[in-house]
Amino acid sequence: MTHEEIxxxxxxxxxxxxxxxxxxxxxxxxxxxxxxxxxxxxxxIPSLEEVGARFERGDYFVPEMLIAARAMQxxxxxxxxxxxxxxxxxxxxxxxxxxxxxxxxxxKNLCNIMLEGSGFTVxxxxxxxxxxxxxxxxxxxxxxxxxxxxxxxxxMPMFKANINALQKAGMRxxxxxxxxxxxxxxxxxxxxxxxxxxxxxSSAVKKAKELMQLRRERVPA
Amino acid sequence: xxxASPPRRAAVREPAPGDxxxxxxxxxxxxxxxxxxxxxxxxxxxxxxxxxxxxxTCGGYGTCRKCKVRIVSGEAPISSVDPAAFTPExxxxxxxxxxxxxxxxxxxxxxxxxxxxxxxxxxxxxxxxILRPAVVKRHLVLDEPxxxxxxxxxxxxxxxxxxxxxxxxxxxxxxxxxxxRRSHFDVTAIVCDRELIGLEPGDTTDRRYAVxxxxxxxxVVATLLDLDSGQPVAVRSMLxxxxxxxxxxxxxxxxxxxxxxxxxALRERAHETLAQLTAEVLAxxxxxxxxxxxxxxxxxxxxxxxxxxxxxxxxxxAPFVVATHALPAVRASEFGVAVHPRAPAFVxxxxxxxxxxxxxxxMLASGLTRDRRLRLFIDVGTNxxxxxxxxxxxxxxxxxxxxxxxxxxIRCGMRAADGAIEGVRITEDEITLQVIGDREAxxxxxxxxxxxxxELVHCGLLDHSGRFIADEEAALRFPALSRRLTRIGQERVxxxxxxxxxxxxPAASVFLSQRDVRELQFAKASIATGWDIxxxxxxVPARxxxxxxxxxxxxxxxxxxxxxxxxxxxxxxxPRIVSAGNVAGEGAKIAALSLRERAEAAxxxxxxxxxxxxxxxxxxxxxxxxxxxxx
Lengths: 221, 631
Known about the structure:
Chain A is 59% helix and 11% strand.
């Protein structure tokens, strides 16, 4: 197989969630001298982006998204150490949690999977996470982005509480804040002082990368 | 994943019979049949719950001594009132007063023929309810006071009501003397659940009414009941006037969180709704407001707390705490309805923040906790309540199904009103629509959505994962229908009705979109995960379910066939799946008709185990398994 054919295979098998074929393809590619970066950026990530697009128009559903992500993770497990060597790994660190009073996590988990698949290191704090805990964990992990998820209009106000807590701890400017969840709107996100909002898992990845880029441009290295 | 993991052992205690914590079996003779009740239940209650009539005039307080029964087999201890009612020989022969005799072991009980023929009414899911309303009227012709008989006015009345032992309020005293004298001490006393709430001049015993309310988030129903006949004399329903504050309970609660005045406004709107319905049923049946001596109310916990002005915020977020399961004594006036000024309100107790009094009422009306068959009860709605069990044990849970069944987030979704597609039949070359009002379709309501998806899955245009099949395959397999499978922008849609726009403009048609199918999949998977987890908790397979009751204003309109095809209910023979109608409202009626049944509602709250789905580690995996349509 040519390198092009291997990349095509990785793209297609990730799209249908064929995990063994994806792992085999990655290993085969490595033996063939294909660069890990090319497999990640020219096959795996575009494939996961297509998964996201299909999800947005309803063609794909949660199970399809999960098996595609699982195939992707199998590939990443092989590639991660190699990417680390070349310094490619680690788009950034994303700290994620569902706000206090809320125990919904399916949407948040989908975001985690998509973010991981796109190269983020994701630290998931789970559900019903108190503002103090977010502050503590931001302090400990120094993530690039912290994400707050809420599924209910009654728990959305915790976004503001979390941001206030970060402010009080003097950490608000050190971290990008993203919010999301079924009832959340871009207007609401802006009103509570979040840096970004996304409607679903695949746009969360796009938004996260965009915000990272913006920050890099603003903060001189 | 669900097929791979073995069903977990039932987490429910299985006590030995007659140990005081479990259940005992009673057989009533002649010909009354078997019932199982919690150990310690008075024989009188056990009989009443099961529609078996035993003589009584006091309603089970041990004062009338009419409820005589004989224990033929087994032992029931002699109560403190028995020696006054029976001779020692009779006691040795097993005679007891049924209202005081607790059943602590399996018993065979002989019930003598009735002296007074009890009245009964059919209510709930084929339930035969013996009339024993909380409201009792007595015509009293009292001796007028003299210098020799200076008994207090209240005492004079209470003396004539000795067997009922009622209490009285200061509000009553304000009018008592006037009524007694104006009517020359010929009055009718109104006692409701041990309170003397009023006196009326002359004999009014033939007029006795109650209103039963089903206070729903969307729809509110009022039924005016004639307590003498047990029959409804007027029924009215209307949309809850809280609607402008949001369609679902969470939105209404968040309204109270954002605006401090909203709680008061929401309370007022609930009251306006109940007051308007009351006025309408009274006018229709030509009954005076003061002739309604009691109201019964069932509703979800949020509706109850809003109607009573209790802050609902804690209900809306983990850990989901209710203000109270059972309310202290409340008057009807607390619900803003103009009936008898001292009429009490009976409010159904709740099991949890999302298994409220409406579901307890539904369980009562369907006899879920008294039936030997294993039954699954599903109230389908934005928040769906699910209960599973039989006379031995019942588990209940709440599943957040979201608004799909109300067709809220469905592209062509609408309420079940004129122009809504409510039924869909699809064959290989034809599609037949059932439209409310027999007019041109303008959208589809929840049952139409379920039907459309079920039919498309069945014929194969939707695959089991919920995706529309490829265009080429559709053209090959369904030449007559494939033009209906098209796109609006990027999204695939199936056109149900082209309407006037014709086949060039799918956006102007009534269609089902790929994302609509996904919305329904989320909703039905949430419910299916609920009953799946309850089955696992009980350790029984789905095939052992004898009956599935689909309840609620939406559940009643679902066709059992479609419910099975989309996997909303377990795959069982269709006759086992029954639309039960508005069982919550039936429960509210039953409570007005029978004090005994009302006690049963309290025991449901004690006995039914609530299973919390939030935070269960297995929920997500089971949920994802349930997203697909059954094969």
